[in-house]
Amino acid sequence: MTFIEFKKCLLDAETSIPKFCKLIKVSEKNIQSYKKKDHIPNAIAVAAACFAKMHNLGIDYKIFIDQLGLVIKTKPGVGFAKKKEFEK
Q1: Are 53 and 47 in contact (CB under 8 A)?
Q2: Residue 34: phi, psi to the nearest 5?
Q3: The whole model's pTM is what?
Q4: C-alpha span between 34 and 44 (Å, rounded)
Q5: What's the CA gap between 13 and 20, in Å, rounded?
Q6: Angle at Cα 72 formed by Cα 56 and Cα 76, nearest 5°?
Q7: Would you list the domain boundaries of the chain?
Q8: For a surface tag, which of 25, 35, 37, 71 has the fewest beta carbons within 10 Å of its beta carbon?
Q9: Distance separating alpha carbons of residues 68 and 64, to the nearest angstrom
Q10: For 51-78, what is each residue's pLDDT tens digit?
């Protein structure tokens, strides 16, 4: 799936990239980086296509996704936290 096809799926699901990212707990920067590549990763493409199909069928997919209890992945020491440790 190309980035343009991905965005069309999001439009069909009546959501935006920021809302999609918040829902699936993925960095918006991560998703935006796929603009430069030839395709969207399979898992992201499947999610977007399923959201569009579910929306077209009148299913509120957001409730199902919220029930999964997804968590944002973070790497230890990312950002300024590690730098502050060295300043002490």
Answers
A1: no
A2: -75, -10
A3: 0.78
A4: 10
A5: 10
A6: 160
A7: 3-87
A8: 71
A9: 7
A10: 999 999 999 999 999 999 999 887 776 6
- Name the maximum alpha-carbon separation found in the chain: 56
Residue tagged 């590690």 (tokens): 82
Token couple for 41? 């990763």
SS3 15: coil
Task: Give me 32's structure tokens.
Answer: 């935006």
Total length of the chain: 88
Structure tokens at 50: 């399923």
Percentage with pLDDT > 70 across the chain = 85
CB 40 within 8 A of CB 1: yes
Q: Check if the beta carbon of residue 6 is closer than 8 Å to that of residue 40.
A: yes
What are the residues whose beta carbons fall under 8 Å from the beta carbon of 79, sequence distance 6 or more?
Answer: none
